[in-house]
Amino acid sequence: PSSRDAGGRVKQHRVWIWWALAAMLAWMPSASAQGPAGVRKQVEASMRVTGAIHIAADGSVEHVQLDTPDRLPKGISGFVESNMASWRFEPVLVDGVPRRALTKVSALLVGKTIGGGQMSVSIRGADFSDDTVVPATQQITGRQLRPPAFPMSAAEEGVQGTVYLLVKVERDGTVGDVSTEQVNLRFVASAPQMDRHRDRFARVAMAAARNWTFAPPTEGEQAAQPYWIVRVPVDFTFTGPLPYGKWQVYIPGPRTRPGWAPDEDAPGFSPDALAEGSIHMAGGNRRPKLLTPLDEA
Fold this sequence. Notes:
Mean pLDDT: 81
Helix content: 10-25%
Low-confidence stretches: 1-18, 24-33
Strand content: 25-35%
Number of strands: 15
């Protein structure tokens, strides 16, 4: 079944995600500290879906092509394509003239319980960066990015999570500052316990990042900047990257922003829409500007 909200956005309610959530709650011995109702209000399931969007000269969407749609759960490809087809972008200008454009997209799908064993699925955020069309000399790349050690206390308790870092890169490629933007945990416990685990993951990730070095851009408009801000997701996992097309169950953390970070992100952006293990330039000046509001973005 599907329905449209007052803003015209399509929503679907699916039962299959509920079983992943139920399995998670079943094996979490500490979940009872807050009670089942409190825990279920926090738990989300997410999936990152990638593809390409053909944008018309007037900013409407001509065509959506998802990557390997056959690997997505039943109904998801149609849901995503129908939503993206209704998006509208600010017209892409080339020498002041609106032109057709092609952009990559990485969209974050989020499912939440709505009762009765069902989930509401929505698109929370999207990223339109495309490093393949930007020469390497105009990008920031990593020279030495040694990953952080897994916190022993978290490993002993079976806690996994992802830390989304904001890193200020100086002109010599060293790290001038680093901050944690968000920490999502794949673990359910009391609020104080989860705060402690988020803090542990954040501290070890930032400690490792302070020793990272980068290769700054040497050409293009970015080369003259006094410094650069990049986002680097750091995943703490026992099993490696989640296969494409699989739901991931987690507890989202609060989002914060340091004073030296960009004032605004591209519309519809969410840090957890970014792929782990990669470097993403902060800010959306070079990307298509999405005008359509996304759910919860």
